[in-house]
């Protein structure tokens, strides 16, 4: 029968048409296959995996970086390591620091394989990425195969909260964990926005900016990662509502209203997930709380990618349930990084990691490693229009290696060792840059960054690219508002977050500030009188300098040392019955962003002589102390940055 050979030939032609990149590209053109480290284009922007290089342009490999390049027919592969300037011309010559690179020739892995002989079930998914975006080959309901376009690209919001300052225990690892996750995703070609220790305003803006920014692209895959404290509160009907906790949210046991104002509830998270237009959204929380917004999944992931994968979905993963505690050194993060970076979560080895595969993998491994102390929860949103698809990650490429020499092992690439870069010493030709993501509470405020002028958009994120790495001072101004000033650190190939918050000017600004500063002083005296250590420490900034009496005399201590001796000091004051009474304000000044207040304080010391003994100690005595407060306003209230006092004699 003649139709069988014709059918096989047609099948091979169709297969090759999907594998070859966009028509019109010269076969000697180059595409980036894998990157480790930094690889910058002539404008200083990061080159990503699967990008095309333009002939005649110079690309910069940063020190310690490695790159694998391939011609578009896949027959020549170039390996190179930084530092150096890499370029190629239309003749096909590839150079690093002016010296030619020798390509490695690869044989096709389909050599000697007939189309009729392929019976492997793991061919249900083949990783493909081109200028049209990311595609998968999925199984249809009839058992056939179909190419399904998925994404135009990936975007991640990665958040780490550890520097808690309102009663929650500090966590030393979440920021480092977030940085590790961000680097992993960036190494896979993702766009990543990293937030370190955000307060509630910065965290809320980061989430909302997904709606107004990348989340407007229906073909963008959106991922959110949060490391930090989680909490659960019970509602009137017995239902439980989970919260993620930014660094300025107070402990709900001490200030429940403040907690609800600053923490982000799962209902708010659900609203963000629903308002994002992108068809696939996954939110991962390295925290423990109730996951009432999603239906917990226990089913085994399918053996292959199904055609319905492209339908909309909102998926969620948490490190544990509301009754469990996540250790600061996270098993969850470690297993996640191994699952994605080492492809361990790719259970069927098809080149993809689906949301269901990732959830099943994390649940199995974290339960084992934590000795059943943690039970990760994963599932999809309780919404019939947003629970049919599945998030898909193209598995991370294998680490790029620089081959020393080729070994005849068929289609398998040789093992490699690092070699010293040849050629002259590299002189940097392109700037080292990053980008800054700016949000503001005010429309149309002017600000200057890296020598360029911009205007804010209220509630809309503005991304400023090509910002030189280093520290920058930013000043924002708008008529009717007080000038705003801050400094921001920009790192190479990273996105820094800048939140500009302007306050309206008023004729009584000084009087208003004086009133608020005086309220902080009153709270300070009240905390001493109530012997409330937590309330007292909350009134100082983290880097406050505090004068106090010690056996060696008056000393100025850091907040941590002051806190260590506070329990003993308050115990002594309680036994003596000492209390403070605020006197008159001696002086009040504003010094830029600081407020300075001198105020007199009366110290009441009850008599404490033994019974029956009458001397000066049996009568209450008073003492006047002159106190000097220096305060700043890092968030919503004025906090003490420096406290000094001057002793006066007893008033009798």
Provide a brief overview of the structure.
The protein is of the alpha+beta class and 652 residues long.
Low-confidence parts, pLDDT < 50 over ≥5 residues?
A: 1-28, 107-132, 397-431
Strand segment tally: 38
What is the helical fraction, as a range of percent? 10-25%
Cα-atom radius of gyration = 31 Å
Q: Using the alpha-carbon principal axes, give the shape.
A: globular
Reading side by side through the largest sheet, how are the strands ordered?
A: 15-14-16-20-22-24-21
**Please, what is the average pLDDT?**
78
CATH class term of the largest domain: Alpha Beta
CATH architecture name of the largest domain: 3-Layer(aba) Sandwich
Explain what the structure shows:
The protein is of the alpha+beta class and 652 residues long. The protein has 4 domains: 25-107, no CATH class; 134-394, 3-Layer(aba) Sandwich (Rossmann fold); 433-500, Immunoglobulin-like (Sandwich), CATH 2.60.40; 509-650, Roll (Nuclear Transport Factor 2, Chain: A), CATH 3.10.450.50. The chain is built from 10 helices and 38 strands. Strands 15-14-16-20-22-24-21 form a 7-stranded mixed beta sheet, sandwiched between helices. A hairpin with a 5-residue loop joins β17 (230-234) and β18. α2 runs parallel beside α6 (331-341) and α6 crosses α7. The radius of gyration is 31 Å and the shape is globular. The termini are far apart.
């Amino acid at each position: 029968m003649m139709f069988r050979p014709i059918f096989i030939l047609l099948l091979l032609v169709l297969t090759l048409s999907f594998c070859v990149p966009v028509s019109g590209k010269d076969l000697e053109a180059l595409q980036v296959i894998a990157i480790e480290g930094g690889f910058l284009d002539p404008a200083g922007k990061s080159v990503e995996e699967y990008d095309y290089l333009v002939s005649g342009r110079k690309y910069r490999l940063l020190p310690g970086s490695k790159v694998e390049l391939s011609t578009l027919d896949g027959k020549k592969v170039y390996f190179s390591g930084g530092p150096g300037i890499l370029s190629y011309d239309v003749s096909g010559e590839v150079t690093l620091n002016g010296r030619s690179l020798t390509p490695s020739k690869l044989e096709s892995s389909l050599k000697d394989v007939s189309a009729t002989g392929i019976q492997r079930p793991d061919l249900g998914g083949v990783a493909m990425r081109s200028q049209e975006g990311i595609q998968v080959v999925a199984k249809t309901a009839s058992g056939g195969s179909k190419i399904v376009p998925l994404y135009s690209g990936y975007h991640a919001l990665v958040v780490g909260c550890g520097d808690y300052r309102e009663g929650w225990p500090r966590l030393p690892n979440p920021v480092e964990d977030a940085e590790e996750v961000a680097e992993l995703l960036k190494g896979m070609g993702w766009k990543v926005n990293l937030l370190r220790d955000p307060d509630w305003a910065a965290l809320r803006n980061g989430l909302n900016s997904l709606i107004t920014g990348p989340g407007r692209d229906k073909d963008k895959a959106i991922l959110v990662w949060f490391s930090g404290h989680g909490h659960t509160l019970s509602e009137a009907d017995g239902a439980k509502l989970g919260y993620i906790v930014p660094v300025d949210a107070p402990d709900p046991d001490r200030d429940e209203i403040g907690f609800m104002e600053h923490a982000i509830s799962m209902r708010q998270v659900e609203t963000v997930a629903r308002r994002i237009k992108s068809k696939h959204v996954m939110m991962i929380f390295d925290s423990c709380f109730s996951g009432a917004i999603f239906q917990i999944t226990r089913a085994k992931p399918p053996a292959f990618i199904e055609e319905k994968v492209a339908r909309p979905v909102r998926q969620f993963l948490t490190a544990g349930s509301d009754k469990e505690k996540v250790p600061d050194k996270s098993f969850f993060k470690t297993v996640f990084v191994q699952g994605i970076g080492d492809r361990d979560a790719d259970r069927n080895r098809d080149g993809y990691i689906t949301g269901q595969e990732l959830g099943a993998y994390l649940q199995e491994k974290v339960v084992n490693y934590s000795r059943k102390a943690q039970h990760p929860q994963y599932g999809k949103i309780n919404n019939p229009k947003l629970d049919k698809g599945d998030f898909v990650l193209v598995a991370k490429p294998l680490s790029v290696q620089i081959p020393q020499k080729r070994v005849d092992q068929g289609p398998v690439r040789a093992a490699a060792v690092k070699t010293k870069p040849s050629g002259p010493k590299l002189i940097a030709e392109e700037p080292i840059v990053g980008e800054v993501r700016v949000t503001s509470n005010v429309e149309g405020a002017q600000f200057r960054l890296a020598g360029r002028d911009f205007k804010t958009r209220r509630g809309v994120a503005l991304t400023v690219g090509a910002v030189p790495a280093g520290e920058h001072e930013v000043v924002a101004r708008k008529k009717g508002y007080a000038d705003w000033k801050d400094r921001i650190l920009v790192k190479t190939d990273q996105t820094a977050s800048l939140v500009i918050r302007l306050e309206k000017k008023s004729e009584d600004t000084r009087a208003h500030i004086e009133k608020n500063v005086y309220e902080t002083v009153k709270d300070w005296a009240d905390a001493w009188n109530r012997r409330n250590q937590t309330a007292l420490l909350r009134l100082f900034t983290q880097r406050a300098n505090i004068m106090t009496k010690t056996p060696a005399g008056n000393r100025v201590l850091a907040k941590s040392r002051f806190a260590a001796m506070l329990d003993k000091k308050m115990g002594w004051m309680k036994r003596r019955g000492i209390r403070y009474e605020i006197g008159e304000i001696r002086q009040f000044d504003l010094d830029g962003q600081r407020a300075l207040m001198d105020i007199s304080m009366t110290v009441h010391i009850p008599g404490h002589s033994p019974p029956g003994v009458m001397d000066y100690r049996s009568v209450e005595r008073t003492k006047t102390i002159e106190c000097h407060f220096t305060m700043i306003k890092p968030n919503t209230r004025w906090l003490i940055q420096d406290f000094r006092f001057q002793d006066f004699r007893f008033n009798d």
